[in-house]
Amino acid sequence: MRENILLLLQIITIDFFTAFGLYSILYLIVSIFIKKPILYKIDEEAVKFISLAGVIYFAVWIIGIFVFYAENNPEEKSDMLNRMFGKYWIGFWSQPILWFALTQLLRFKKVSKNALLRIVFSFFLIFSIERLIIFTVTLHRDYLPSSYRMYNDLDIIYPSNFFLALLMKIMVFLLFVGIYYLAKNQIKKITKTKRIEN
Fold it and tell me: 191, 190, 187: which is closest to 52 by C-alpha?
């Protein structure tokens, strides 16, 4: 159960939140040059989808807290409670609440249509607080060993592959948005026909 919850949270954060952040940046750039209604409709559905993903993420995260607490031994339970409500409680609660708040604020059209807010939200959806801290620490001068090399001979990431990976992440995200849109419309049709029959 624990592994399934962690996997679901990882899928939502990496494949949906990060991809939405990348998509938003791409959308803002493309919307400068292309002013077609279909582009705005896709963005509207993407915002609705990420808002739903934010609710699901927060619900799964809360369920995960209870599951992890129930599966732990007494010493681990004490440590978990100390992390949740102890001296450094803000580190435990800040990231999930931030992601939930950002995704829910996007429900408001004034927020989702504001380019500056979308860029800020995209940044916080792409880079978690933990990633920012790790990035800052790894760039710190005293942290780097003297034999530090930027690339291993076998681990070179070519720019074309990197951009292709980002593009694929956005495409998969848009595929899920399309599935969400079709499912939502299908549910509306079914409920409409049931109302007519009754």
Answer: 187
Which residue is it, tokens 């004490």? 78
Q: Is the per-residue pLDDT at 91 higher than 90? A: no
Whether residue 156 has pLDDT greater than 50: no
Provide mean pLDDT across the span 31-35: 88
Distance between CA atoms of residues 88 and 162, nearest Å: 36
Query: CB of 53 within 8 A of CB of 103?
Result: yes
Asked if residues 65 and 73 have their Cβ atoms less than 8 Å apart, the reply is: no
User: Nearest Cα to 168, choosing from 22, 6, 7?
Assistant: 22
Whether residue 117 has pLDDT greater than 60: yes
Residue of 191, 184, 194 lying closest to 41 (CA atoms):
184
Overall pTM > 0.70: yes
Give the C-alpha separation, 103 to 13, whole Å: 12
Question: DSSP alpha helices (H): ranges in the chain?
Answer: 2-10, 19-33, 37-71, 74-85, 89-105, 109-112, 115-126, 129-139, 159-197
Please answer whether residues 27 and 43 qualify as being in contact, where contact means their C-beta atoms are separated by less than 8 angstroms. Answer: yes
pLDDT in tens, 59-69: 999 999 999 88
What is the per-residue burial (b if ≥16 Cβ within 10 Å, else e) of 103-125? beebeeeeebeeeebbeebbebb
